[in-house]
Predict the structure of Ubiquitin-like 1-activating enzyme E1A.
Amino acid sequence: MSNTHSHVSQRLSCKRVQLFSLRVLQMGTEGEQLTEQETAIYDRQIRVWGVDAQRRLSKSHVFVSGLKGTSIEFCKNIVLAGVGSLTLNDDRLVTEDLLFANFLIPPDENDFRGKSVAELCCDSLKDFNPMVSVSVEKGALSIFDADFFQKFDVVVISYCSLLTKKSVNAKCHKLPKRVAFYSVECRDSCGEIFVDLQNYSYCKKKNEETIECELHYPSFEEAIAVPWRSLPKRMSKLYYAMRVIERFEELEGRNPGETSVDDLPNVQKLRKELCEAHCLNESQIPDSLLKRLIASRSEFPPVCAIIGGILGQEVIKAISGKGDPLKNFFFFDAMDGKGIIEDMSNANS
């Protein structure tokens, strides 16, 4: 009796899956429909966020520049989720530091000799999901003009200078279509995500009703231009500390992560100048926090996994149009395990 019941249950289960797949293939009123192969691979995801969201993901094009621990976690997540294409940009050659938190780079030196970080990561990501087109774009991020970013739906940059962040974000704003912009960075056991979705519309359910929402995002340059004295008193200390170090690296002509504990006196001096200019008490940027952010050049893989996972979720929200998107800064500190969202556009208004 038990074996007969088991066989009947299996046949019924298979029948339900077949009927579900058939409904999925028949659904979809806009754009191309999902193929049978896509439906089979993304079956569980479709059950969670729906066929329309999965179709949008499958037709989306994502660009990622700066491949370190956090952005690598993000790339893994969106490739598994099934974006249409992923373009990688990072011409650096592999070093011991890059191997620490980048699980996509093979540990054998003979495997990565002569190849860039982007090329090695591209080879590994292709094995994660053969349905996703993964490619490499060579060249410094600063040389790409606005037309280059026109072909993407999402642009994610990591570990680049303050000037480059502003420049790439501004180029995305110039385009006739909306291109979602994200910058992400981890220092020591802390992480920051910035989001700019420009003028963004989405739907969400409230009390069993679907309501349309609209959000306006400031650019990165506009967001960090908000005077500190106008920010909430309980503003994340990590926001101020990141801006001080970012500004220090800009003045010194350094790349992110090229500071050390030897720079602490000069960073403290700059903190004093910025706090005086913004009428902010220096206690809002503790010495202990500044020291942590500049003393360690290594990434913490657990923090990279957390930040990369959150970034992946936010990009999926932006592409699918489902769920409340993050607006517009997110901070995480492993010391207290807290994630904090700060909306700089509200402060600006």
About this structure: The two ends are 70 Å apart (CA to CA). Confidence is low (pLDDT under 50) at residues 1-31. The first strand starts at residue 61 and ends at 65.
